[in-house]
Amino acid sequence: MGSSSSDVSGPRPVGIHWEYAIPLLAVHLAAALVLIPSLFSWSGLVLALVGTHLFGMLGINICYHRLLTHRSLAVPRWLEQTLATIAIFSLEDSPVRWVATHRLHHAHSDAAADPHSPVHGISWAHTGWLVRPAPDRRTLAFFDRYARDVLAVPYYRWFEKRPMRVLWVYLAQIPLFALAGWLFGLACGDTPAQATLLAGSWVVWGVLLRTVLVWHQTWCVNSLSHLFGYRNYETGENSRNNWLVALLAAGEGWHNNHHHDPVSASVQHRWWEIDITYYVILLLARLGLARDIVLPRHIRQANAANTPRTSSAVMTTSQ
Ligand SMILES: [Zn+2]
Ligand SMILES: [Zn+2]
Asked: Which of 128, 219, 253, 314 has the highest Cβ tally under 10 A?
């Protein structure tokens, strides 16, 4: 199987990292408000379901993961930072911290330095690692080593000066959703009281529940996709292709494919390993909004073999 799990040694940290534990617990508890019947609305349900896919795909999959971490594509700076803000609306850490942590995962997958390997248990890989202290991963030296390119961008560095800024930006979407819901209710003929309930519904379903769903979508990649599924490649760790996670996380569950070729913008290595996130990247390219898209390794190698003097590792499209 090619696992390096024997490298893992030493106890896991004890104690609680309250900076993460409190928001994680608070948002989960607040999302439970969906159980209140008066806060249900069909438009809120649609916001939750569509929002989970959109925020997860645009913010986490495309921006944090494939763009900032692996540089599998490039987009105009205004679009990159808009997508990063969408990622922050999912409260999955700052761009610098997310990128540094994920690069650490790739550098030491399922070994001692992997921040979230399930060799320590599925609950550790899913959520446990987030709420345990990790002082080594909160230092400027760590960020500088693993995410210097991201830290160099003023907008991303702004969040590191005061880490609570991630939380404030996240919370700023709540009045926006509430106002939108209230106006939508009035436009549909609701009374002010009914519109206020709809505003609450949009916040609870469209922000809080959506946040929880995006979290678990991402966490399933860390936990399930290193435990269950098949492997196309011997990658030296335990990554798996998991169809359920791929379905939930718009392609990210083809995780063994990703570990085999992390820099590729696509994780679709067989026709049925559908990678919705890559299709959206291609759509962005068609619209002139994405360029320097890194193609899968076998295509890069074929290009290099066929046209050695002009071969390109990337599909360049004009902006
Ligand atoms: Zn992995
Ligand atoms: Zn990755």
From this structure: 253
Domain-wise residue ranges, the chain: 5-258
Q: What is the pLDDT of residues 267-301, one digit of tens each?
A: 999 999 999 999 999 999 999 999 999 999 888 88
Q: Give the integer Cα–Cα distance in Å for 154 and 245.
A: 34
The ligand minimizing its distance to the Cα of 102 is 2
Cα–Cα distance for residue pair 108/110, rounded to 1 Å: 6
Of the candidates 209, 220, 230, 229, the one whose C-alpha atom is nearest the C-alpha of residue 250 is 220
| Residue 162, token pair as written in the block | 């005061």
Helix (H, G, I), strand (E, B) or coil at 115: coil
Query: Which residues have C-beta within 8 Å of that of residue 277, sequence separation ≥ 6?
Result: 57, 61, 62, 66, 250, 251, 252, 267
Residues, beta carbon < 5 Å, ion ligand 1: 239
Residue 220 Cα to ligand 1 midpoint, Å, equals: 10
Which element (helix H / strand E) includes 78? helix 77-88
Ligand 2 geometric centre to CA of 268 (Å): 14
C-alpha 255 to ligand 2 mean position (Å): 8
Q: Which residues of the chain have pLDDT under 70?
A: 1-11, 308-319
